[in-house]
From TrEMBL:
The organism's taxonomic lineage, starting at the top: Bacteria, Pseudomonadati, Pseudomonadota, Gammaproteobacteria, Lysobacterales
Transmembrane domains' residue ranges: none
Organism: Pseudoxanthomonas gei
Keywords: FAD, Flavoprotein, Monooxygenase, Oxidoreductase
Lineage top rank: taxon: Bacteria
Listed name of the protein: UbiH/UbiF family hydroxylase
């Protein structure tokens, strides 16, 4: 492969993970291109995005290092200081409190569109070469790098190509990487709701036989919900008249925050577990949803993806400090092992929690109530669980 005009990396996919990866690598004086099929919508404070994340402290630190955290936080990042988890069938409650953990907050609730908007705003100044709208048509690779042909007629050569183009990744398919997948037969119903009582800057999660129901604080009386239901039931509640939806949602949440009223459109997205067989195939790297899709009950999807970015950034920095080749096969393989082991463990842990809590079998009901109660009464265990989720 000719070295003339060759980039260090081409990132395919301009969502949160892909844009963060492009920005991170460009910030390390690497030549980077980003390929995205459509320009992302501009974020508007007057039109909240239904897709929100419980953003972890370690990823806030990553965005700080990339120079965009202040712009995200100043636009709209709702801190939450407490978390309450309980089971509808009874038993103990698991709680996390920022004061007891010595933190200012446990994390932040942030919209997807806001993160993408701020990341994209930083790309040109970082020197990232943008190809948008454009999609990958073909890919060839050898021991030296990759050659990509785009549908806009462009041809790109790079030392590595990074697939961050989602669960149905085109680049992953071109690299011949298979996936193992499990359909949960569930959908996550999302919306914004107003509650009669203040949400107390608390992330609430109630486990029901059909799946968990989460209320994430967006402002004092405004919350984002993620209501996990069997597919047919999710379709039914999305189609309900507003009054009936409010009534069923209030009941499902046990009226913990009083009466609930939906104040936005509603949507439902299918839930599944999907894991790529490998995160490195020659000179192609996989990250984010292209590598792993997990159940949303712990709100860890985007956090896991950004940890892929953080690990790659750390590996590149380490190689640069040693004047070594960051794209050497053994370094890429080490990055792959680090990420894949962590993400697979998380995926199967969330899978196990979902199986334990999303049923009304008597023994499972007794076990989960006891488990939550035990964790809630042992502060070191609760501390460990939270630190595991927050990445610190």
């Amino acid at each position: 492969m000719s070295r003339r005009g060759r980039l260090d990396a081409v990132v395919v996919g301009g969502g949160v993970v892909g844009a963060a990866c492009a920005l991170a690598l460009a910030g390390l004086d690497l030549s980077v291109a980003l390929v995205e099929g459509r320009e992302p919508p501009r974020w508007s404070a007057n039109a909240p995005d239904l897709r929100v994340y419980a953003f972890a402290p370690d990823n806030a630190a990553l965005l700080e290092a990339l120079g965009i955290w202040a712009s995200v936080r100043n636009a709209r990042a709702q801190p939450y200081r407490r978390m309450r988890v309980w089971d509808a069938s009874g038993g103990g409650e698991l709680s996390f409190d920022a004061d007891l953990l010595g933190r200012d907050q446990l994390g932040w609730i942030i919209e997807n569109d806001l993160l993408v908007d701020r990341l994209w705003a930083a790309l040109p100044a970082a020197g990232v070469q943008l190809h948008c709208p454009a999609r990958i048509e073909s890919m060839e690779q050898d021991a030296e790098g990759v050659r990509l042909r785009l549908d806009d007629g462009s041809r790109l050569e790079a030392r590595v190509a990074i697939a961050a183009d989602g669960a149905g990744s085109t680049l992953r398919g071109l690299a011949g990487v298979g996936v193992s997948a499990h359909d949960y037969g569930q959908r996550g119903v999302v919306a914004f709701v107003e509650t009669e009582r203040s949400n107390e800057l608390t992330a609430w999660q109630r486990f029901l036989p059909d799946g968990p129901l989460a209320f994430l604080p967006f402002s004092d009386h405004l919350s984002s919900i993620v209501w996990t239901l069997p597919t047919a039931e999710a379709e039914r509640v999305v189609a309900l008249e507003e009054v009936a939806f409010n009534r069923e949602l209030t009941s499902a949440f046990g009226a913990r925050l009083g009466e609930v009223r939906v104040v936005s459109s509603r949507a439902a997205f299918p839930l599944r577990r999907q894991l790529a067989e490998t995160y490195v195939a020659g000179r192609v790297l996989l990250m984010g949803d292209a590598a792993h899709v997990v159940h949303p009950l712990a709100g860890q999807g985007v956090n896991l993806g950004l940890r892929d970015v953080a690990r790659l950034r750390a590996n590149v920095m380490d190689a640069q400090s040693r004047r070594a080749d960051w794209t050497s096969p053994h370094r890429l393989a080490r990055w792959s092992r680090q990420c894949r082991s962590e993400n697979a463990a998380a995926a199967y842990a969330f899978d196990g929690i979902n199986r334990l809590f999303s049923n009304d079998e008597m023994h499972a009901t007794l076990l989960r109530g006891f488990t939550l109660g035990l964790a809630g009464k042992v502060p070191p265990l609760a501390n460990l669980l939270w630190r595991r989720a927050s990445g610190i």
